[in-house]
């Protein structure tokens, strides 16, 4: 036998010995590396922030629409307020009501018709209509109504609930590739062997075909039990609990159940805090930073997470010893390339942005609602008591009486909102506590304690604390509004 033949036989024998030495992981062998993924899964499965319900802006919008109708289309308003024929007036072509309402306002017009119909109780909107139907609104009323419509439209355009729904869908896609969650065996089976799906960080380094597609795929690469890698607790949690079958890679069966066990082991209790954009962003950033630096594996193989041998030429086959590894290999990439490869990371970052945007949008809505309430109060006073409001000297060029009232209302509303869920602070600030006997509740402005700038600065007479009226002998304008409303 030639020397080269001896060498070849020796090499083959050595290779076979190395392959024979490959073995299943022991219990917990991969738990150190899976814990990183588990932390990300924990954040991604956390409940989303809860948005408190806000009063609908529809009623305020109807008030503004009523004023606009009385000003720009009084004939249309007469037809809308005609109980028996209102809807036919709105629907019939070329009637004044139809011409006005068909410009995207049909639903609003019909709602007004319903509220103004014969026999309706003397609600706020009915009182305003009665005050406006025999005379055109003044210019200040028209301007405030326009501002009210703008404010309600701006508040309605903010969609915090929609943003949270989008965040939930993105989190589910990051977890298991489906917006509604609940991936099936077929969704998670992939194509090719375990090493092909999970990658090979050593010989001609090749990223796994399924690596980074979802957190479920990556978790299965690290932890799944199959015919060779048959330790069910390689990552700590028992992937075969509740009767989950072992996996045959590329064949549907067992994937969804094993993933469900891993996800459950990583999930927070229901009582834990909600997901935050900051947490999702930080966890994703740490992962994307650590992977290229080989911080998530025991040997130096950038782009890898999981247990690796010194020369894992067999790829991420889920085993240890010889040339094996129980890992995920994303490729020797970083930055934008890595984000593009790890699709679940980009989904998490987008979800984080949507969560933050939803919270900001709700805060903007709350602020807008304070302005809307103040505008509505001023408009109501001007419509129902125009003859009762005395002239108040302006505090500066171009500052109207209603402008002097609106600003303090907004300031007081913002002050009161700071005392939400604090009954004592709310009452001490002379705000109106809406929580009854509870220690938590809404804190809203008490209009009787709001002064207008002009009279407050003037500081003279019985009504110096606010805009006074002839009819109500020195009471605040808002007191009169309450008395008439």
From TrEMBL:
Main location: membrane
Keywords, in A-Z order: Cell membrane, Glycoprotein, GPI-anchor, Lipoprotein, Membrane, Signal
Signal peptide location: 1-22
Keyword Glycoprotein: yes
Listed GO CC annotations: plasma membrane; side of membrane
Annotated region (Disordered), positions in chain: 435-472
The keyword Glycoprotein is assigned to this record: yes
Ranges where the Trypanosome variant surface glycoprotein B-type N-terminal domain occurs: 17-373
Membrane-related topology note: Lipid-anchor; GPI-anchor
Low complexity bias locations: 451-471
Cellular localisation: Cell membrane
Domain Trypanosome variant surface glycoprotein C-terminal per the UniProt entry, residue ranges: 416-483
Role played: VSG forms a coat on the surface of the parasite. The trypanosome evades the immune response of the host by expressing a series of antigenically distinct VSGs from an estimated 1000 VSG genes.
Name of the protein this chain belongs to: Variant surface glycoprotein 1080
Organism listed in the record: Trypanosoma brucei
